[in-house]
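User: I'm putting together notes for a lab meeting next week and I want to include a structural view of one of the chains we've been expressing. I don't have a solved structure, so I'd like a prediction I can at least talk through. The sequence is below, exactly as it appears in our construct file.
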Amino acid sequence: MSNAAGFIGGMLKIKPLLTFDDDSHKIVAFEKVRSLKKAYSRVEELLAAELAKVNYPVKAWVIHANDPDAAMAWQADLKQKFPQVPFEISYFGPVIGTHLGEKAIAVAWIQDLSRTTK
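Assistant: Thanks for the context. Below is the predicted structure for the 118-residue chain, given as structure tokens.
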């Protein structure tokens, strides 16, 4: 986002939801919501939809940019909502954190190969 778009978005409490684009291998904005609470809720909806589609175990991370307290709080909430998914906490490195901004937070999930039955 440009500086102007970021400033206006901040004033309107617009939170861009980002995802990895499989074709371009880039992080792209795919949706915008107003308020952090709605952003958390939307990400939880996306995780629930993905879990309903897959037939394998998943593991997940709450990833933060210099906000471990928010990460721990969201992790506790997610563990209650998705008890079948192990959640860990990680952090964005300095390069990605600089681009996302301080206090950015995310959830990432992948197939848990350590729990996959053969």
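A couple of points you could mention at the meeting. Helices lie at 3-11, 36-53, 68-81, 94-100. DSSP finds four helices and five strands in the chain.

User: Perfect, that's what I needed.
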